[in-house]
Specification:
It is a single chain. The protein is of the alpha/beta class and 449 residues long. The protein is built from 15 helices and 18 strands. α1 runs parallel beside α2, α1 crosses α15 and α8 packs across α10. The chain is globular and about 70 Å long. It starts with a strand and ends with a helix. GO terms for molecular function: 5'-methylthioadenosine deaminase activity; S-adenosylhomocysteine deaminase activity.
């Protein structure tokens, strides 16, 4: 009998193969052809097993790759400023806007944001912004899975920051066609390293007829949709004035409120909105840190109780999904004023792994460490003062861990982060290019006032 030969064998780890599984001490992972072939105790490895490469990671916790279902990598350009402006940055003259970003700047900033996310444990990001035909492959080249889409809208964004809300059919046709063309190029590939969700920007930046166009395109192509929902009082007020209803009611009326929708934020909701979102089985992209920074909180406990599917995301200005696990846990407990069995670290890890995979339509492919699943996983170094002792490794990770504790990231069986460094790019060069692009954008934005 021939001994099993793996492409990659990871040994000596503490393994949490899925959110609700008990940790396995002194575990091993065998990976072949980009998929997990062995998952279990090292003592149970097939006799005489060999590997092209072995990684011995004693003192490390390994969990499934983290799925960041809603982010804007380019918006790292306003990091450290936008957080203290409330909801104003997109509407404030002098602050860089998406329509100002040049192609080379978009690529540089997107790679910076994607690198940050990957180094902090994201193995898949669902991104949207501008120049996506260039940024999507540039980000994927770093090694992580990248779903991305241009902003789909029919509002003239150049006027929004000055209070002009003009919807133009030509803009809508252009942005939707760009997204459909992107999907033809990058969606449904055998290695699943790239993909597209139709990114209808928001109910207030898409006219009602145009939202129907997006819904029809999604139904025709089988693509999923992501959008911002009830993220601001401005949005809610505009939809009330324009359509006489709430944003979730509008999305329901045009055929978008369903279990193929990733709805980011979901903050300013009525009781009826929560019931609608829950009944539709919407995947709520919860952004706990970003929302709390702006003084808001999404009613995640009530949404989950109503039937919504919780996922997690960083949105913009930072990309640390490990930190997001903690914020989501704490924000949920603040809502009920209690520590409860149904809202524990494992529920947050589920939202960030299997829950995120389901939102991306990949629940049978990623989100768990199991034989046959695509080999995406993250190793965190527990040999650090803030992670010792780790009586409960997952609880320790969620309560005191940070993205900078990630030492190794594996995507499709490839080690794309090793000892905290990317394996496919020059990290210092990515940082330099991103910083230069942001500086140029700020200079132009200030000059435009």
């Amino acid at each position: 009998m021939t001994a099993e030969a793996f492409d990659l064998l990871i040994e000596g780890i503490t393994l949490v193969p899925d959110a609700f599984a008990a940790p396995i001490e002194d575990a091993a992972l065998g990976i072949t052809g980009g998929r997990f072939a062995f998952v279990g105790r090292a003592a149970d490895l097939p006799l005489g097993a060999t590997a092209t490469r072995r990684l011995r990671l004693a003192g490390h916790l390994v969990v499934p790759g983290l799925v960041n279902v809603h982010t804007h990598t380019i918006l790292s350009m306003v990091r450290g400023v936008a957080e203290d402006m409330g909801f104003a940055p997109a509407y404030t003259p002098g602050v860089p806007q998406g329509h100002m970003v040049r192609e080379d700047e978009a690529v540089a900033l997107a790679r910076l944001g994607a690198l940050e996310a990957m180094l902090a444990g994201s193995t898949l990001i669902n991104d949207t912004y501008v120049h996506t035909d260039l940024t999507l492959p540039a980000m994927a080249d770093l090694g992580l899975r990248v779903y991305s889409c241009n902003r789909i809208h029919d509002v003239d964004f150049s006027g929004v920051s000055r209070g002009r809300w003009t919807h133009e059919r030509g803009i809508g046709e252009q942005t939707l066609n760009q997204a459909l063309g992107l999907a033809q190029r990058f969606h449904g590939k055998p290695d699943a390293r790239t993909g597209v969700q139709l990114a209808a920007h928001a109910p207030d930046t898409c006219s009602t007829p145009f939202l129907r166009d997006v819904a029809q395109a999604a139904q025709r192509t089988g693509l999923r949709v992501q959008t911002h929902v009830s993220q601001s009082k401005v949005e809610v007020a505009r939809i009330r004035e324009r359509d006489g209803c709430t944003p979730p009611e509008l999305l329901e009326s045009v055929g978008l409120l369903n279990d193929r929708l990733v709805a980011a934020h979901c903050i300013h909701l009525t009781d009826s909105d929560i019931a609608r979102i829950g009944a539709a089985g919407v995947h709520v992209a919860h952004i706990p840190k970003g929302n709390a920074t702006g003084g808001t909180i999404a009613p995640t406990r009530r949404l989950v109780e109503a039937g919504a599917r919780l996922t997690l995301a960083t949105d913009n200005m930072h990309a640390d999904m490990v930190e997001v696990l903690r914020w989501a846990l704490c924000m949920g407990r603040v809502q009920t004023g209690a520590v409860e069995d149904g809202w524990q670290p494992e529920h947050m890890l589920h939202a960030a792994t299997a829950g995120g995979a389901a939102a991306m339509g990949m629940e049978a492919e990623i989100g768990r460490i199991a034989p046959g699943f695509r080999a995406d996983c993250v190793a965190l170094d527990l040999r650090r003062p803030h992670l010792v002792p780790h009586n409960d490794p997952l609880g320790t990770m969620v309560h005191t861990g940070m993205g900078r504790d990630v030492s190794h990231v594996v995507v499709e069986g490839e080690v794309v982060v090793e000892d905290g460094r990317p394996t496919r790019c020059d990290m210092e060069e990515v940082m330099r290019a991103g910083g230069d692009a942001a500086a140029a954008l700020w200079a132009r934005a200030r000059a435009s006032i």
